[in-house]
């Protein structure tokens, strides 16, 4: 199957997004068809780019980064959060999603946004792309998965304060996230019988109820139900001992109870190659696993590997070759 090209959104241009887009193009030209939606004046000096009016103008043998222009109202100052960019950053994402939803783009790969700047500048009411994309696609249940050659992780609760995790962690949420993950691994990632490992919430997975009871009251019953349905699923496991090399060999994805339980291991093991992929959407969406990196924006030090892997994964998912 040949898919339409991937739409790469510029994200917060004061961060490392523009240099990542230029570097990814250098690496992926001829391999992954994609185009950038953003302001061409934000690209590093010397970047070869070409304006396109529609995704179908992306040429497989093109020699310059194709851009669907979206002029920003305020100039880029690398390294400085810019609430004034917020309206344009959001509009770029909306445009990419509309292109993907209509089939004109094969999927969306998002460069990092600065959540606080979006909130300050445009009252953005979403904690991240994941929730915003679910809203744009009118989809209630989506899953954030971070994937690298070393590990795949899914946080069941995502962008909420730690103090709210216990309340948010319901049986319905846990079961839904597990089912979406299982379906996506099987149908999109080509794993015929996905093996899932489910973390506990508490130290030592509750130590038999001495250190918390969510493992007994919430997690174990769902694991049991799904296992009875034929899922290859284990847990609740002690989160501190489920990420070492031998343990990682035993599963295809780790289902974790909160954001940092999932993201610390993968970003520690494979920060450069991690890809954030949203499961359960009607469109393909990936992203690099890092943020705006204001501390190095505009210095040329940004490593494009995670963006390159994110574009590759978007293309593989869009073209059915993952
Ligand atoms: N997909 C996204 O939109 C996304 C993802 C993660 C974080 N964020 C946002 O980014 C902002 C900054 O977050 P943060 O400071 O916690 O994390 P960060 O990933 O931006 O930076 C953490 C550290 O890693 C370094 N780093 C990050 N990416 C790098 C790269 N490609 N090459 C070399 N070094 C790199 C940075 O220089 C910094 O020292 C926050 O607003 C956060 O919410 C957005
Ligand atoms: N939670 C992600 C991370 O820390 O890498 C990040 O904030 C991106 O989330 P969205 O894809 O929802 O923007």
From TrEMBL:
<dbReference type="InterPro" id="IPR005255">
    <property type="entry name" value="PdxA_fam"/>
</dbReference>
<comment type="similarity">
    <text>Belongs to the PdxA family.</text>
</comment>
<keyword id="KW-0521">NADP</keyword>
<dbReference type="GO" id="GO:0051287">
    <property type="term" value="F:NAD binding"/>
</dbReference>
<feature type="binding site">
    <location>
        <position position="285"/>
    </location>
    <ligand>
        <name>substrate</name>
    </ligand>
</feature>
<dbReference type="GO" id="GO:0050897">
    <property type="term" value="F:cobalt ion binding"/>
</dbReference>
<keyword id="KW-0560">Oxidoreductase</keyword>
<dbReference type="GO" id="GO:0008615">
    <property type="term" value="P:pyridoxine biosynthetic process"/>
</dbReference>
<dbReference type="InterPro" id="IPR037510">
    <property type="entry name" value="PdxA"/>
</dbReference>
<feature type="binding site">
    <location>
        <position position="130"/>
    </location>
    <ligand>
        <name>substrate</name>
    </ligand>
</feature>
<dbReference type="GO" id="GO:0042823">
    <property type="term" value="P:pyridoxal phosphate biosynthetic process"/>
</dbReference>
<comment type="subunit">
    <text>Homodimer.</text>
</comment>
<comment type="function">
    <text>Catalyzes the NAD(P)-dependent oxidation of 4-(phosphooxy)-L-threonine (HTP) into 2-amino-3-oxo-4-(phosphooxy)butyric acid which spontaneously decarboxylates to form 3-amino-2-oxopropyl phosphate (AHAP).</text>
</comment>
<feature type="binding site">
    <location>
        <position position="276"/>
    </location>
    <ligand>
        <name>substrate</name>
    </ligand>
</feature>
<keyword id="KW-0963">Cytoplasm</keyword>
<dbReference type="GO" id="GO:0000287">
    <property type="term" value="F:magnesium ion binding"/>
</dbReference>
<keyword id="KW-0479">Metal-binding</keyword>
<feature type="binding site">
    <location>
        <position position="204"/>
    </location>
    <ligand>
        <name>a divalent metal cation</name>
    </ligand>
</feature>
<keyword id="KW-0460">Magnesium</keyword>
<feature type="binding site">
    <location>
        <position position="259"/>
    </location>
    <ligand>
        <name>a divalent metal cation</name>
    </ligand>
</feature>
<keyword id="KW-0664">Pyridoxine biosynthesis</keyword>
<feature type="binding site">
    <location>
        <position position="267"/>
    </location>
    <ligand>
        <name>substrate</name>
    </ligand>
</feature>
<keyword id="KW-0520">NAD</keyword>
<keyword id="KW-0170">Cobalt</keyword>
<feature type="binding site">
    <location>
        <position position="159"/>
    </location>
    <ligand>
        <name>a divalent metal cation</name>
    </ligand>
</feature>
<comment type="pathway">
    <text>Cofactor biosynthesis; pyridoxine 5'-phosphate biosynthesis; pyridoxine 5'-phosphate from D-erythrose 4-phosphate: step 4/5.</text>
</comment>
<protein>
    <recommendedName>
        <fullName>4-hydroxythreonine-4-phosphate dehydrogenase</fullName>
        <ecNumber>1.1.1.262</ecNumber>
    </recommendedName>
</protein>
<dbReference type="GO" id="GO:0050570">
    <property type="term" value="F:4-hydroxythreonine-4-phosphate dehydrogenase activity"/>
</dbReference>
<dbReference type="GO" id="GO:0008270">
    <property type="term" value="F:zinc ion binding"/>
</dbReference>
<feature type="binding site">
    <location>
        <position position="129"/>
    </location>
    <ligand>
        <name>substrate</name>
    </ligand>
</feature>
<dbReference type="Pfam" id="PF04166">
    <property type="entry name" value="PdxA"/>
</dbReference>
<keyword id="KW-0862">Zinc</keyword>
<dbReference type="GO" id="GO:0005737">
    <property type="term" value="C:cytoplasm"/>
</dbReference>
């Amino acid at each position: 199957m040949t898919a339409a090209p991937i739409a790469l959104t510029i994200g917060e241009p004061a961060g490392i997004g523009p240099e990542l887009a230029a570097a990814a193009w250098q690496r992926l030209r001829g391999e992954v068809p994609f185009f950038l939606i953003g302001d061409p004046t934000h690209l590093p000096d010397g970047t070869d780019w070409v304006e396109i009016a529609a995704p179908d103008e992306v040429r497989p043998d093109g020699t310059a980064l194709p851009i669907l222009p979206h002029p920003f109202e305020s100039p880029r100052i690398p390294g400085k959060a810019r609430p004034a960019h917020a309206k344009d950053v959001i509009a770029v994402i909306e445009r990419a999603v509309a292109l993907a939803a209509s089939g004109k783009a094969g999927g969306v790969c998002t460069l990092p946004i600065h959540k606080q700047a979006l909130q300050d500048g445009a009252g953005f009411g979403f904690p991240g792309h994941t929730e915003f994309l679910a809203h744009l696609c009118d989809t209630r249940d989506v899953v954030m998965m971070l994937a690298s050659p070393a590990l795949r992780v899914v946080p069941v609760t995502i962008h909420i304060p730690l103090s709210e995790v216990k309340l948010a962690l319901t049986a319905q949420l846990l079961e839904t996230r597990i089912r979406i993950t299982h379906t996506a691994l099987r149908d999109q990632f080509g794993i015929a019988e996905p093996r899932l490992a489910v973390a506990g919430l508490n130290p030592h997975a509750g130590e038999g109820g001495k250190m918390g009871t969510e493992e007994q009251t919430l997690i174990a019953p769902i694991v049991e139900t799904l296992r009875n349905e034929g899922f290859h699923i284990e847990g609740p496991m002690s989160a501190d001992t489920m990420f070492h090399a031998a343990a990682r060999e035993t599963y295809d994805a780790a289902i974790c109870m909160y954001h940092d339980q999932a993201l610390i291991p993968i970003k520690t093991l494979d920060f450069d190659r991690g890809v954030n992929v949203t499961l359960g959407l009607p469109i393909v969406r990936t992203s690099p696993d890092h943020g705006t990196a204001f501390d190095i924006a505009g210095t040329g030090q940004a490593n494009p590997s995670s963006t390159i892997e994110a574009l590759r994964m978007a293309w593989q998912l869009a073209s059915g070759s993952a």
